[in-house]
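Quick illustration, no need to memorize.
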Amino acid sequence: MPVRMFWKTLPGSRIPVRRSSRAVLSLVSVIAVFVVPTTVPGQTRADYRLSTDRPDLSEASTVVPAGLLQLEIGVHTTRGRGAAGPTVSNTPTLFRIGAGGGWEIRLGGDGLVVIDVPGAQSVSGLADLVVGFKRSLGKDLALLGSVALPTAAAPFSNGSAVYGFIVAWDSNLGGGWELGFNYGGSLVPSFPGADTRHYEHFVSAAFGHDLTTSLGVFFDLYGLRSHRRGSRTLLSTQVGATYLLTRLLQVDLYADLGLTRRAPARSLGAGLSVVF
């Protein structure tokens, strides 16, 4: 079972993003991917045990073995705060493709999004497409990079690209206990379609425990803060469970509770992960 505890932080000022800014992000990724040595043991379908990046926002350090396709999909519903708070439902979907040599190609996004505001007609549409990679940097450590492409229509799109990275570390503590941390950041449009962007950064911690060889539980805490002027810190917790139906098929169930006013009041979700 992947580790599951999360925590985020971000700064908040508008940053005009030009080629130089994007070049710095690209250069950091290139250095980390090609300069840092890796020691990734070869895995095949026969010895791979499912390790997922869902259901929470925290990413595991494991990479899908070469030649395998792993699909992670679910249903997620979030309730806003107050009587007028919107209910947002979506179908988060992630395709993870093992490319070999410690590489993984990733395609996904929030899938179909439905926004229901009390007293108004609900709207629905597809979210932006996210493309990226995961690169193993050695035992229990990985780097992820992604670009959210503005493929969707308003109000389901950012209007322009969002660039992000995550460094994921996790460790087996023994006795069925697992611990993991994420640190990452992203350049987000200051408003939909804007050429200016603000920086967000986060840090996460995740705890998981295997109750049996098939059943696991997890708890995570995460915080989010933006460098956008006037932005407030987002803090939220999540608890849930995962169950391995087979070595390559897992189902999950979870619930979120917002701890600050910026965070959604509560969320529920369920999903499935399978290797082809």
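The helical segments are 19-34.
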